[in-house]
Amino acid sequence: MRPVGTYGEVRQALLQSAKALYQQHQAPTLKELSAHAQVGRASAMNTVKNMTRSGDLVIVGRRRVDHCAKPVAEYAPPDATDPFGQEDGWGNLIRCMGNLTR
Asked: How far apart are alpha carbons 63 and 31 in whole angstroms?
């Protein structure tokens, strides 16, 4: 069994892609992460699922895209999403009260 705290190559590539592609107004989707990290879609899907479960990635919103009927999740590293960051408090309050993602 792999010791806790060590990461495989796919996991490292996806985490680096999430850090590189994250922007305040838009975070990368699974498809964008997999393309940027040059990882297969099935491998990226399983790894991102595990990374979300372990807390290495968080879902920060959902976005409509052309290739899917439902809104897809946007992922970001937990340290990139600071809920009390540079926004004034009103944006956070409105999102909490209205259950909005952006």
From this structure: 12
Do 64 and 101 contact (CB within 8 A), yes or no?
Answer: no
25: tokens are 């107004």
What is the phi/psi pair of residue 99, to 5°? 55, 40
Element (H, E) at 10: helix 9-21
Q: Exposed, middle or buried: residue 17 (CB in 10 Å: 0-12, 13-18, 19+)?
A: buried
pLDDT digits over 50-82, tens only?
999 998 999 999 999 998 899 999 999 988 765
How far apart are the C-alpha atoms of 2 and 6, rounded to whole Å? 7
Q: Which residue reads 């792999």 in tokens?
A: 2
Alpha carbon distance 15, 44 (integer Å): 11
User: What is the distance between the terminal CA atoms of the chain, rounded to a whole angstrom?
Assistant: 40
Q: Are 76 and 57 in contact (CB under 8 A)?
A: yes
